[in-house]
Write a structure and sequence with these properties.
It contains 2 helices and 12 strands. With 243 residues, it is α+β, with helices and mostly antiparallel strands.
Length: 243
């Protein structure tokens, strides 16, 4: 008769442990859920999304803003009105931070993580492109892409590629950005150039020598045959100097 009594005692002793385990699991789930969104009434996600969307340049594409969670260790005083603001040296694309400060009732200021996803049409490499190559229509295509995946300004028109070459390799399917490009030098230091000096109602032409490399439309310094140093703009192999 002693065995059934011991068995009943063990079962009864197990119930509190099981209940405690269930309570701990429930508490962990609740804590995890509460950390998924800003927990202070002044930190309205809708207000933060609207503010960040205004920071994205007009016409950049479709914008989606994901607002992260406030640090759960922070205990903020009640606030009647708060406003978001852009932190110095941050860009409104990709994973970034936005500041929120209280204007009425308290003096706290906090930062929230946000993920700004921008999608739009841009030039994409249709094949792997080597550094030093000049992208052309045959190796490019325009398609919908996530423009905020990398830093930099996406190229949206082939006219932006004229006279430029890549400073780094670009993988197939990657968005072409202005930061990937440099103006191709059409004149090197020491090359002979034609100097065209233009003033009010007159124009003088002379021969000269380039003092540095430059591409079409770039500023350049030249030396005339008499040794005078002039600064102008390169147009083909002619340097236009405004007097």
């Amino acid at each position: 008769m002693s065995d059934p009594i011991r068995l009943t005692s063990r079962l009864r002793g197990a119930r509190p442990a099981s209940a405690l385990a269930s309570a701990l699991v429930l508490a962990a789930v609740c804590a995890s859920a509460s950390a998924q969104s800003p927990s202070h009434p002044a930190l309205a996600p809708e207000q933060i999304r609207a503010f960040v969307e205004r920071l994205v340049p007009a016409g950049a594409g479709r914008v989606e803003v994901q607002v992260g969670a406030l640090d759960p260790r922070l205990q903020l005083a009640p606030c009647g009105r708060a406003e978001p603001y852009q932190l110095p040296s941050t860009r409104p694309w990709g994973r970034t931070l936005v500041g929120v400060r209280c204007l009425e009732g308290a003096t706290w200021s906090v930062t929230l993580p946000v993920n700004v996803i921008v999608r739009g049409r841009a030039l994409v490499a249709g094949e792997a492109l080597a550094a030093g190559s000049s992208p052309s229509g045959a190796s490019l295509r325009i398609e919908e892409a996530e423009l905020s995946r990398e830093p930099g300004t996406p190229v949206t028109d082939t006219a932006q590629l004229v006279g430029r070459s890549l400073i780094r390799p670009v993988a197939a399917g990657q968005v072409i950005r202005l930061e990937h490009l440099r103006i191709t030098h059409t004149v090197a230091a020491g090359d002979p150039v034609r100097i065209q000096m233009v003033g009010q109602g007159f124009m003088i032409q002379a021969d000269g020598q380039a003092l540095a490399g430059a591409g079409d439309g770039q500023p350049i310094r030249v030396r005339t045959e008499s040794g005078r140093i002039l600064a102008g703009t390169l147009r083909g192999r002619t340097v236009e100097v405004r007097i």
